[in-house]
Design goal:
147 residues; Rossmann fold; EC 3.1.3.-; single chain; globular; 4 helices; alpha/beta; 6 strands; His_Pase_superF_clade-1
């Protein structure tokens, strides 16, 4: 299976709470550019954090890829990467839309078996992982996008 871990696009700081921060126009554009690079990955499922900016990122991905979006509550910025792994689908090619620092910690945990020292993720960056099942230390980082 492939697991593509993506950080949401650039978001506005003007919102009543962190969970309600919307994407900016530039954020929408950068998401579209990254998702267009993911079209050949065979993504058949999208899961996203419930935060507005992640939902908007997933909606753009859904539009471009023609895939539905499921919301997972346990993949917000401060959630545990160990707990997040337990909530991920165990089959298919899945796009996971979430936040820093979780995207970095989750990538490190899946690839290296430890939840620290993962790659840096700018807004709308994505890591394409290859793995049998989502479990600590079993993934291989194929590439980082955008390139």
């Amino acid at each position: 299976m492939k697991l593509i871990i993506m950080r949401h696009g650039q978001a506005s700081w003007s919102a009543p709470s962190d969970s309600l921060r919307p994407l900016t126009g530039a954020g929408r554009q950068e998401v579209r550019q990254t998702v267009e690079q993911l079209q050949g990955e065979g993504i058949n499922r999208i899961v996203a954090s419930p935060y507005l900016r992640a939902q908007q990122t997933a909606d753009i991905a859904s539009e471009v890829l023609g895939v539905t979006v499921d919301t997972i509550n346990g993949i917000t910025p401060d959630d545990s990467p160990v707990d997040a792994i337990e909530q991920l689908p165990e089959e298919g090619n899945v796009l996971v839309v979430s936040h820093m620092p979780l995207v970095s910690a989750l990538t490190a945990l899946l690839c290296d078996g430890v939840p620290f020292g993962g790659p840096g993720f700018g807004t709308a960056n994505a890591a394409v992982l290859s793995l049998e099942i989502p479990a600590a230390g079993l993934a291989s980082l194929q590439k980082m996008l955008p390139v």
